[in-house]
Every structure is written in structure tokens, then in C-alpha cells.
Amino acid sequence: MFSPQGPSLRELATQALSSVERGYDLLAPKFDHTPFRTPDGILDATADALRPLGPFGPGLDVCCGTGAGARVLESLCQGRITGVDFSAGMLARARGAHPDAAWVRADVRALPFTEAFDLAVSFGALGHFLPAERPALFAGVYRALRPGGLFALPISSPQPVTSGLYWALLGFDLAMRARNAVWRPPFVMYYRTCGLRAVGDDLTASGFTVTMVPLTALGRRADGSPRCGLVLARKAPDAPMS
Q1: What is this structure's pTM?
Q2: How far is residue 73's CA from residue 57's CA, in Å, rounded to a whole number?
Q3: 101, containing H or E segment
Q4: What is the total count of domains within the chain?
Q5: 1 within domain boundaries
Q6: Is the per-residue pLDDT at 5 higher than 80?
């Protein structure tokens, strides 16, 4: 599917009936040939929005997958780049593409870093976490950042109910909930559980100061609103040392 180099429907079905970790291990060799890989346009727009806020020292890609976010960090960070993910298969692909970066296998709900980074990014991963899991994720990112550090993540604006994409995403989430109700292990991936307001509230509760800038390079809707925004979560410069 998707391209001649992408996974077949059978391979996708096998992945969807696996755990999240095992599913991504299976998909890793062909992941970059699917629509699930963060598009270059989003990566480039994020880098352009962050560039005036830098330069940065060491950078962290949270839920790095095959390493697409490394191109953002490499263009912004003067220190070493680190990616963290729990899929060994995805990390192997990232390591092959960016051998100079550090690639760490870990559960991002318990990040093994303390005040090590100036910038953290994450692309397209929030749907893999239930709302109740986000506080642990964000607390770990907060702990991993140095005082004054920045956590940036692009989030698409809500789809209007008249949009075909609204109904497609709703249908996908309902299908995943039905799958997880009858099949184990669960595969957590929901598109409609990580809205801007909910994510902002969780980041604020974790200690961040949260703002958002529109990624206008990605276009606007008919009403003039941006299609995507970049959430900027800042750790206070005077935050006490962990």
C-alpha cells in the first residue's frame, strides 16, 4: 500500500493486531514509505518556527521512530542529538540514517534523563498515549530539559464537522476502540484524544508555560485559521534543579 516500497494490506493488518511495540518493529523497514511518517513540510515548518528561538544546545526527539525529527534538531542544535523510542526496529532504522546521533530504547513515560537538553520535540506521537498517560510523559520531558528549555510539538487544528477528514478520523478512532475491546494486546492510536486545549492543560499542569504559534507555511482553512500550530512549552529559566 501507499507506494511500491510500502507495506501490503496484509502486513498492515498483522501490525494492527500486534502490540504497539511489536507493530512498529514489524513496520519499521517500510515505515518511511507510508503516510505515517511525518511529512517533510511539517518538519521544515517546525524548524523555521523554532530557528528564531535558538540556537540550542543538546536536543531530544521524543518518540523518534525512524529518526525523521533528527533533521529538525540537526538544523537547530549545536549539541548532540538524542532520540528515544521503545521500538528496537524503529531505532535501528534511525541509527542507520543518523549514525552520529544517540538512539536510546526506553519507555517515554519514564524518560531516563535529567536536565540534559535545551530543546525537545515530538512529532505525531501523542495519539499513542491515553489522556491519563500524558502527565507522566510531560513530566518526564520537563525533567529532561534544562531550566529555560523548550518542548515543541506541532498539533493540527480541529477539523470542522463538515470535513470529510473529521469523519474519517472519527471512524478510525471508533474502529480502534472496537478492536481494543475485543483483542489483546491493545494497539493504542487515537487521533481525537490529543486536542490542543487538553494537551495545553496537561503541559501547564506539568510546570510548563505554554504558548502556540501558527505554522502558516502549512496553509490556512477557508475561515483563515491555520491548519496546524506549534505548541511551545517552556520550562522556567529559574526552575529549581532536579
Answers
A1: 0.90
A2: 10
A3: none
A4: 1
A5: no
A6: no
